[in-house]
């Protein structure tokens, strides 16, 4: 549907992940499975942390919020993405596009900063264990959480402001499974240099600041672990951080691959595949690897069986 400017655009067509008919149903079933596991895993974590008092500590306070963010993030994107596999035209309205993109940005920025808050929590727990309860007080945890969601609002509002006054012309086919900013910029009939520059600056803030915080935290953590004399103690410290390191690597790696590059250096089809890591796969990691959560799950089932 051609449009001369943004005010005349009423809908966009999302191209989805593939246009090969033979892959539509297998991909639909694959991502349905991802979404079900993501929902069950994250809602299960939220429920377990709420029901088990021994998990009411800062580490699981942040994990509770990470699960909420991951569940909300996947729910924002995955159901609409699956429609592209079974619909001839996967259409999204202008208002729907703006709403989806706002929540996408909010949860992406919130997740990047909750991961940095979790890195700081692990730093305090390993490097200053005697001061842990004082440093990570309920007031400090609440302050960090306010910062996390505050940066989520900042990222969403600034990105929305970047696209609000864009004009579109020609085709309204978005080369993506969602209304992300980079494929929308390809449809703009304005000069997009400033828009790309704003994207780069905002994403650098959203990725760069948390990455620096995480690297500094893990630098101190590694130094402290190397000073632990017992092999068992070092192994326990490493295992405490392993799930977080995997999630951080996938989340920031896929985000940087998608956004921190020159606009013409990577086809958007490859960017689509990169973004799948932080919209469908990434939320599964903590659900599958966290030992304390598995213990809490067994205890909860045992209590239910006994009752």
Automatic annotation (TrEMBL):
Residues 41-252 form the G-protein coupled receptors family 1 profile domain. PROSITE patterns: G_PROTEIN_RECEP_F1_1, G_PROTEIN_RECEP_F1_2. The chain crosses the membrane at residues 25-48, 60-78, 98-120, 141-161, 193-226, 238-260, 272-289. GO terms for cellular component: plasma membrane. InterPro entries: GPCR_Rhodpsn, GPCR_Rhodpsn_7TM, Olfact_rcpt. GO terms for molecular function: G protein-coupled receptor activity; olfactory receptor activity. Its main location: membrane. Gene3D superfamilies: Rhodopsin 7-helix transmembrane proteins. Signal peptide: none annotated. It is a multi-pass membrane protein. It comes from the Eukaryota. Keywords: Cell membrane, G-protein coupled receptor, Membrane, Olfaction, Receptor, Sensory transduction, Transducer, Transmembrane, Transmembrane helix. It is found in: Cell membrane. Pfam families: 7tm_4 (PF13853). Belongs to the G-protein coupled receptor 1 family. PANTHER family: OLFACTORY RECEPTOR. This is Olfactory receptor.
